[in-house]
Amino acid sequence: MKLIFEKSVRGRTGVLPGPTDVPTSINIREDRLRERSAEMPELSELDVIRHFTELSRRNFGVDTNFYPLGSCTMKYNPKVNERIAGYPGFAHLHPLLPQLRRGGMLTQGALAILYDMDLLLREITGMAGFTMQPLAGAHGELTGMMIMAAYHRDKGNKKSIVLAPDSAHGTNPASAAIAGYRVVSIPSTECGDMDLDALKRALNDEVAGIMLTCPSTLGLFDPNIKEICDLIHSVDGLAYYDGANLNAIVGKARPGDFGFDIVHLNLHKTFSTPHGGGGPGAGPVGVQEELLPYLPISIVVKRNDGTFALEYDHPKSIGYIAPFYGNFGIVVRAYAYILMLGKEGLRHVAETAVLNANYIRARLRPYYQPAADRVCMHECVFTTTEKMAANGVHALDIAKALIDRGFHPPTVYFPITVKEAIMIEPTETESKETLDAFLDAMIEIAQLAETDPEKLKVAPTKAPVSRPDEVAAAKSLNIACL
Length: 482
Ligand SMILES: *Cc1c(COP(=O)(O)O)cnc(C)c1O
Prior knowledge:
Strand 5, helix 9 and strand 6 form a beta-alpha-beta unit. The chain is of the alpha/beta class. It is 36% helix and 11% strand. Helix 2 runs antiparallel to helix 10, helix 5 packs across helix 6 and helix 10 packs across helix 13. The site of pyridoxal-5'-phosphate has 13 residues, from helix 5.
């Protein structure tokens, strides 16, 4: 497809602007003025409509096809969330409106939602208080690490190390490092749990805490999770829970009850707000009672007269982590979703997410090698079989072959502890028919990998782009080059 600039024909236009009544005399310094007018593409309205409609038809998203991308929870986002977040009272709220006094009436509803969401997330996670401000999961992690550092500084603890399992999501060690910690990796056992002996060996007074997720990035629930938290506490460390994919346990178990001190959630995964492509997210952070003074400002409070306000006077707070109050629209979407589902609905989310993942695991077991052959939570990890490897078939070939069959590839080569990893997260929103269609494609690909592997190595053949040089594409990005 030609770029819109390449389609330009001099003099062609799509609009006939009438005479303007806007005065043109603005004081722009002479040396700031353009020497010649900007080069804009010149096209008819129809050309423009066709160009962008054609581009939109090439779009692949969860609203068009199945998207089993492990650790990403690419589930359906109910459209009612969008509708509610779009109400003018939310969507048109100016961040500089006063909270109380004149105009305050306009912000009371928004503050009430932030306040109420805090209460809901406390109940869901077993924590004592939340900030809704962080703008993404990784941003929540950094906030949590800064809270951890503030806690130790306050207590006079000299600590420099944060532990993380070797299967950790990459953002975990990155966040700890940005907060100034040295990261020590704890190996996993053969069956995918944290190696408790290795953890005990790594424990010392320098340990500020641990960052981990349960279920792990292998989709496994670590049966020693409580003991791990107790061990960390035994050296006055804090346990940080990465709750990006809480849909595995939501309504069933609470990280606060396992013994975690700090938690972040990805509203844009578990709580069904749209994500992908770098769109806005929200990574609320919850803490236990003794860490409440360190939460970022401002804090939403309810006054005795029933009105809501933002509080800034928290001397131990880590300070500002986001301008104004985070991605408010995302919080509204998640709030609508939680209220719509209620307690039973959220429980059903976890049950279905786990059931769907285990259905995939059970049906693919004869064709792919499970990374850990036991009941999984919300996702399951496979690797290529010996026969596939002998035929030179890699996880990447399987991923590319799925594109031709109308499916988004699963996550491949993560977690890095599994060679040729294929990590599938079906989510709770997919029907059995969709899962079956995906499984049929996966099984057909597995059979091709044994009988006609060359066919897989040229896939995809039906997509607009086949196999780009991913390194070159990242280094010299040209998003208009289709
Ligand atoms: C997605 C994810 C993150 C990071 O969340 P972002 O919003 O992309 O920053 C962190 N941990 C886990 C386990 C995740 O799946």
